[in-house]
């Protein structure tokens, strides 16, 4: 695979992502978070790297006050349009996460489908996202992040996967740069009913973390891990599962 530039995260996104199979799991994911974080519906939520707002909108429909942030203007425009169409009182901001200045304002901060964690140019820049999470939370506030598992990558990559959704077949190719702890991820989607062409993978380098690394990072920011999972059925995290979801509280 050809490796994308280090600032790849600024330019590759489009609304075609709506056709990917994992988008169909949004409602299940939201219900899981509400249950595991013991949310009441009155919490103020910050959704970092919210994309086209699928989680933000789902939470807002359940009565939560939601602010979504993403660097991609088309995503924010689409999210704001759909919020208005649904009559939801939401706030969508087009911004680089690192430019946010929230301080002790939110009850919950979400980083879903990576939430840009690991996407930035180097470790120093990636750590700024953890700073934003901690700064934005009120004392006692809750963080939920969904990222790739570095332990799994080191053990199982390279790997190819596929998943069939209602609208498209998604193919993914994974490799591992162990020296820099970066997953090299390329994907290709075949929409049903359209002529198929050979896939062309361009790898996005994404810094992955172990649970211990996340624990250490959060401890330095006055946060404590409460639980960690490998899927949205609540199974425990494992080096044999690609996903790592971490629920933490600001102390």
Describe the structure.
The protein is α/β, with parallel strands linked by helices. The protein is built from six helices and twelve strands. It has two domains: 8-149 and 209-250, Rossmann fold (3-Layer(aba) Sandwich), CATH 3.40.50.150; 152-204, no CATH class. It has helices at residues 26-36, 54-61, 73-86, 123-136, 150-156, 211-219; strands spanning 2-3, 44-48, 65-70, 91-94, 106-111, 137-148, 159-164, 168-177, 182-191, 202-207, 223-229, 243-250. A seven-stranded mixed β-sheet has the order 4-3-2-5-6-12-11, sandwiched between helices. Strands 1-10-9-8-7 form a five-stranded mixed β-sheet. Helix 4 links the parallel strand 5 and strand 6. Helix 1 (26-36) crosses helix 2 (54-61). The longest helix has 14 residues, at 73-86. It is globular. The relative contact order is 0.16. The model has no long low-confidence stretch (mean pLDDT 94).
What share of the residues does DSSP label as strand, in percent?
A: 25-35%
Query: What oligomeric state do the depicted chains represent?
Result: single chain
Distance between the terminal alpha carbons, to the nearest Å?
A: 43 Å
CATH architecture of the largest domain: 3-Layer(aba) Sandwich
Please tally the β strands and state the result: 12
Sketch the topology as an H/E string, one letter per element: EHEHEHEEHEHEEEEHEE
Which fold name fills CATH's third level, the topology of the largest domain? Rossmann fold
For the largest beta-sheet, the strand count, sense and barrel status come to:
7 strands, mixed
Mean pLDDT, all residues: 94
- What is the total number of structural domains? 2
Helix content: 25-40%
Which shape, going by the Cα principal axes?
A: globular
**CATH homologous superfamily title of the largest domain:** Vaccinia Virus protein VP39
Low-confidence stretches: none
Computed structural class: alpha/beta
Number of helices: 6
């Amino acid at each position: 695979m050809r490796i994308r530039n280090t600032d790849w995260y600024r330019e590759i996104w489009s609304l075609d992502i709506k056709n990917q199979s994992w988008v169909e799991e949004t409602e299940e994911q939201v219900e899981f978070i509400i249950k595991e974080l013991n949310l009441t519906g009155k919490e103020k939520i910050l959704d970092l790297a919210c994309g086209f707002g699928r989680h933000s909108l789902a939470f807002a429909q359940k009565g939560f006050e939601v602010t979504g942030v993403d660097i991609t203007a088309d995503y924010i425009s689409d999210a704001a349009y759909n919020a208005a169409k649904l009559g939801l009182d939401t706030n969508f901001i087009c911004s680089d996460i690192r430019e946010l200045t929230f301080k002790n304002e939110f009850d919950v901060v979400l980083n879903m489908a990576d939430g840009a964690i690991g996407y930035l140019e180097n470790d120093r820049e990636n750590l700024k996202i953890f700073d934003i999470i901690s700064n934005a939370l009120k004392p006692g506030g809750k963080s939920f992040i969904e990222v790739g598992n570095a332990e799994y990558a080191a053990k199982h990559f390279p790997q190819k996967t596929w998943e069939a959704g209602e609208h498209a077949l998604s193919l993914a190719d994974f490799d591992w740069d162990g020296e820099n702890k970066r997953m090299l991820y390329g994907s290709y989607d075949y929409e049903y009913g359209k002529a198929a062409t050979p896939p062309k993978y361009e790898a996005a380098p994404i810094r992955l973390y172990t649970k211990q690394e996340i624990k250490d990072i959060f401890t330095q920011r006055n946060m404590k891990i409460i639980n960690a999972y490998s899927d949205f059925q609540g199974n425990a995290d494992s080096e044999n599962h690609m996903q790592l979801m971490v629920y933490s509280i600001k102390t």
